[in-house]
Sequence to fold (681 residues):
Amino acid sequence: MDQYTLNLLVVGASFALYIGIAIWARAGSTSEFYAAGRGVHPVMNGMATGADWMSAASFISMAGLISAVGYDNSTYLMGWTGGYVLLAMLLAPYLRKFGKYTVPEFIGDRFYSNTARMVAVICLIVASVTYVIGQMTGVGVAFARFLEVDKATGLYIGATIVFMYAVLGGMKGITYTQVAQYCVLILAYSIPAIFISLQLTGVFLPQIGLFSEHTASAQPLLVKLDQIVTDLGFASYTGHHQSTLNMVLFTMSLMIGTAGLPHVIVRFFTVPKVADARFSAGWALVFIALLYTTAPAVGAMARLNLLNTISDNGAQADGITYEARPDWMKNWEVTGLLKFEDKNGDGRIQYYNDKSEAFKATAEANGWAGSELTVNNDIMVLANPEIANLPGWVVALVAAGGLAAALSTAAGLLLAISSAISHDVIKGSLNPGISEKGELLAARISMGVAIVVATYLGLNPPGFAAQTVALAFGIAAASLFPVLMMGIFSKRINNAGAVAGMLSGLIFTLVYIFVYKGWFFIPETNQLPDNAANWVFGISPLSIGTVGALVNFGAAYLVSSMTKEPPVEIQTLVESVRVPRGANKAVAH
Amino acid sequence: MTKGGQALSGEKSATAYWSANVRLILWNLVIWALVSFGFGIVLRPMLSGIAIGGTDLGFWFAQQGSIFVFLVQIFVYALMMNKLDAEYGVEE
Fold:
């Protein structure tokens, strides 16, 4: 059987499974549509949260990001996991106790202000839409690479699948498909990683392999890697080369951004009890950690593999000839993710850091005229099975895994967006008298519209689509996380304080990002060049969410202390979310 | 809106439960920050003498160790809170 047929079979089987679940898990009420009837087992919810959280970026790009930079990009590993500690202790159990359906709804009720609720809806929509566009383009790319259809067709197929289970089943359908998607994506990620670890170090677990001996050179793997990359003029892999302040602030932005992302928070509304919400956050991190502790091993090993393949005679000698390149390089050249240009016309591949001044002399002495290979970071994961010579079904599994990662996150985001429209805007503001049946229909229509809009934006990605980390995490960190936390941990923060906090955090963060990235991300409209020399105190626009959160806390505190304290019933509400007893009952599935 | 405070014997007990929870959270946040921002980033040079698998302890904390600590933290917190809930009679 050829690779194409295998890919088609494996991806087709995974899609049939998702559709089967969609038919089985139809939603009959708004409680089922928004919160899966609050009957999801905490371990199941942990697994669903894992898939909900781990996007195309985690699955495809993260190992490559670490691979390219090494230690300094550990920020992604700590940032995207540390947020779960904050969720488990500062938000999830109390918001579950509050027992409503959406994040803006809590903000509106706690701060007794429809303005606060609408500001929260806007923050939610901007963050989630930015995020969802990345997933939709990811679906298109995965289809194009593995199933040889064009991006648009791939996107339509992906959107149709999501449409079926999200519109029919709402949160209930999404939850159980996410559980299945988690299983697909974790298998697809682990199997190639285990084989590569075995090949390079003889150790089964990549987590241990990373810190073991590289069999071929009888040196520790990381020592060998450091040696090869520095020989080629790159910065050392394990060394610390970027600003420490920026690393701290970026990690913090990712952590509080993670905790403040509505599509993650609402997953904890689906468990039966408050205690379950705490444990469920732990289970979510177990399932996330399986991938996140594998990723740095994949990154380091893939980089070592790649460099070893190209310069098999040692780093200072000439590279392999272009004619003798392995098959996987040929396959990936077709996709454009790998490019070779014979700059000095010697028919050999030279790959080194041509931006390093210190290395220039060595390169010239060797007769090299610039690095001849351009490698897209995403290859580190996508080409892994081929680099490790794994059988065709593993390649097919990676295709299904990438699609599962993108589709599961897209569905979670679309639910957050559509429930904000149907529950917060339609029922909360435009038509409060709407019946249960009417709201369920409105929720389904909102979901359908959200999918159509997301598909359109996936086909024609606007300028801001590439700024997920800055925009979605910046907004979640600077606007949503602080007010949610203050709403629970302070009785004194009032309506005016919350609105002031959210707006000042949001505006501060957006302006800082726009100044460097261009106003509304329109190219050439930035006031200052986006580099470390121009950043205020060296803080990158990607890390500014942390400062934005501080602005939010500060403004909310100041304005609240100058205005009237919240009414007694609000203080009672805060007291009630702080204790587990009395959360509303679960509905059995 | 259901009232969660009803089971408590009084205002004082609710306050005590909450401050016990907040204390627990603060301790956890100290550990959380120490392993990631501390050992993983700022204090890494101090730990550079401790070798582990071809690199130093700080690198391990940044790429793996902190995640393991986060995991243990959440489960320990959840267990301790179950105990605390029962102690104050606020469990479900």
